[in-house]
Design a protein that fits this description.
The protein is of the alpha+beta class. It is built from three helices and three strands; from the N terminus they run βββααα. The relative contact order is 0.08.
Length: 92
């Protein structure tokens, strides 16, 4: 049986295009109208200390496509971390 699930992010930016407020809702799991005020409210479970993740792929995705996808994600995460922290050693 096929079904559709939706995740919606609304991101308010400051004058430098940095995220000021992030709100999100999802059609599954009772995740409606959640708001990110602090990093750990949004991305980490307070009890489990596990980072939230959204796995996006389809069953038809080829392994080589997945390899490219993950390589690009890691590069983007490194760049984002460097811009946010200035810590080149960890970003590398």
């Amino acid at each position: 049986m096929s079904r559709t699930s939706e995740i919606k992010f609304t991101i308010q930016l400051d004058d430098k295009n940095l995220p000021k407020k992030i709100e999100w809702e999802a059609t599954d799991g009772g995740l409606k109208g959640k708001s990110m005020r602090h990093y750990d409210d949004f991305f980490m479970g307070k009890e489990e200390q596990v980072t939230m993740g959204i796995d996006l792929w389809t069953k038809d995705m080829l392994v080589n496509d997945m390899n490219i996808h993950f390589s690009q994600i890691l590069n983007k995460m490194s760049g984002s971390y460097l811009r946010a922290t200035g810590n080149n050693e960890i970003a590398q």
